[in-house]
Amino acid sequence: MNPVRVLLADDEHLIRGALAALLALEDDLLVVAEAASGPEALAMARAHRPDVAVLDLQMPGADGVSVATSLRAELPGCKTMIVTSHGRPGHLKRALAAGVRAFAPKTVSAQRLAELIRTVHAGGRYVDPELAADAISAGDSPLTAREAEVLELAADGAPVAEIAERASLTQGTVRNYLSSAATKLGAENRHTAVRLARERGWV
Amino acid sequence: MNPVRVLLADDEHLIRGALAALLALEDDLLVVAEAASGPEALAMARAHRPDVAVLDLQMPGADGVSVATSLRAELPGCKTMIVTSHGRPGHLKRALAAGVRAFAPKTVSAQRLAELIRTVHAGGRYVDPELAADAISAGDSPLTAREAEVLELAADGAPVAEIAERASLTQGTVRNYLSSAATKLGAENRHTAVRLARERGWV
DNA sequence: GGCCACCGATGACATTTGTCAGGGGCACCG
DNA sequence: CGGTGCCCCTGACAAATGTCATCGGTGGCC
Question: Is the CB of B176 under 7 A from strand C?
């Protein structure tokens, strides 16, 4: 039986290296490539055509989900899984929509990770039960596309005028969207709304 | 020569375990304890009295710097070092003030980390050059104590009235402090001011 | 003692924001 | 075809926020 060819993508060398070392102990797993950024992960995947890609959620360049999306299109045979420190409900949803086969927090053990890689390679799927519960209880985003867009532009505390300009909208329209978004989220102002939407992974 | 006794504290099992495995390969290093939270790190340190404590910056309960402060008081012989994913200038300053001997990002290699542990154990110090440059260019916080306090209370987007109540101040006073803080930081409003202060590690 | 920085407050003002009530246009669906 | 939901806008009002001038008190420092 050929070993499972694995691509590791994580921007923290320390963790990536440690992970590679641990997975190397499993004789049915073979780490064929490592990457420290989204674009690098894609390039490595093209070059080495791994069976399974283990992606960190937050990476410079392109995050794990967008890498997974690209991979799905380019290398349908390559299964993807996401490992992350900060698992937010929305991320899980986006990841599953992108065809990711497994989604786990970094609090799992290396042993467990190795098992997950095997599971995914065999065609199985997995999501962390706790994250799944969060995602279900958080539900779908009640925000419309524009509400979410405007909220995102408001994320760094920009004044309404700037948001309006960047979104090519009227200030009044922007305020209406922000107001309705805040109402839907149960927030008193747009800033707490931004925070809540972030926590739920809706932005 | 006795091996260096190391305490590992990081809330991500995956990383902690991987790190422990890697450090175990170095025969002059011995991981005697692991912890997943600030309080647990303290308890472990008391129980096992390590030579060097490797602390993650962000942990549940108490962050790496406060753990380092407590350790310095309780176990003066135990040297502390901080390893983190997100190194902000202010964190570095606070860490050094707390008597931390080394401050490195998680982008270092395991080999490098092992060297750092030896360096620290031998009485040396180390700070990541890039972080040091950031810290120097960021300079000291221009904020007065109250400005920083009020800014912190404003961090989650609370309205002025709530900040005033929580700080036992008048709304006018709060607005004045927020205004001066925003001016000092070159921000247009308090929300971007909060963000800037966070980025520089001044809150 | 005088100087200066910080703390805390007041009052007034301009600006920004939040909120509400609309209206026209468009697309989808029963 | 009518209803519904979203998009985009307007206008107006209330509330929150930012800004400025100013004042008194405190404590450190030369």
Answer: yes
> How confident is the model over A46-63, as pLDDT tens digits?
999 999 999 998 888 877
Q: Compute the distance between CA of residue B45 and CA of residue B79 in angstroms, rounded to an integer.
A: 11
Closest CA in chain B for residue A111: B14
Chain B residues close to A158, C-beta within 8 Å: 192
Q: Which residues contact B134 (CB under 8 A, 6 or more apart)?
A: B87, B88, B89, B92
B177 pLDDT more than 90 = yes
> Tens digits of per-residue pLDDT, B8-66?
999 888 888 888 888 888 899 999 999 999 999 999 999 999 999 999 988 887 778 88
pLDDT tens digits, one per residue of A3-17: 899 999 998 888 888
Question: What is chain A's length?
Answer: 203
- Cβ contacts of B33 within 8 Å, gap of 6 or more: B7, B8, B44, B45, B47, B48, B50
Query: Measured in angstroms, what separates residue B173's CA from nucleotide D21's C1'?
Result: 14
Could you tell me if A34 and A16 are in contact, meaning their C-beta atoms sit under 8 angstroms apart?
A: yes
Which residue has the closest alpha carbon to D11 C1'? A172
Domains of chain B: 4-137 (3.40.50.2300), 145-200 (1.10.10.10)
CB nearest to B14's CB, from A107, A157, A195? A107
